[in-house]
Design brief:
3-stranded antiparallel β-sheet, about 15% strand
């Protein structure tokens, strides 16, 4: 059952999360018109690096979980649980992002402009939901086949 549609969804989730790790999440514009880029690993400001390691860890963990979930096709209930856990992690990503954004915004005394790469985890949550539905549909189909035997 590895060639099912949920495999495609989970691979897309993995790709989107890896892309989100490599792209800037937003830009700070200081009062002196200096622009700082917020990457998942951190932001360089005033010749010092301010780390946002929580955001990067959540993205790494959720991309690993979504990739490994593909290979749990023999245990669909565990696959469903791991997909839900990945979605909860991605909601936690947005909460951590907001916390880091407001902390850095006050430290840098700058305005913030989001990047389009910030939408990748939201798209990943939607794809996780679609994978969850497909896995559930497979589980129902297998249970119906077992009942007929």
């Amino acid at each position: 059952m590895i060639q099912r549609i949920q495999t495609v969804y989970l691979l897309l989730v993995t790709g989107l999360l890896i892309a989100a790790m490599c792209m800037p999440l937003g830009y700070f514009t200081g009062a002196d018109a200096v622009q700082y880029t917020l990457m998942p690993a951190g932001v360089s400001a005033n010749n010092q690096f301010q780390s946002t390691w929580g955001i990067l860890c959540i993205l790494i963990l959720s991309s690993i979980i979504s990739f490994l979930t593909i290979f749990l096709y023999k245990n669909r209930m565990l696959q469903i649980r791991m997909t839900v856990f990945c979605s909860v992690l991605l909601v936690g990503f947005y909460l951590a992002f907001l916390a880091f954004m407001f902390m850095l915004k006050s430290d840098l005394e700058a305005s913030f402009r989001i990047s389009w790469a910030l939408s990748f985890p939201l798209i990943a949550i939607i794809l996780n939901y679609l994978a969850l539905r497909a896995i559930g549909r497979d589980e129902v189909m297998v249970k119906a086949a077992d009942r007929l035997r």
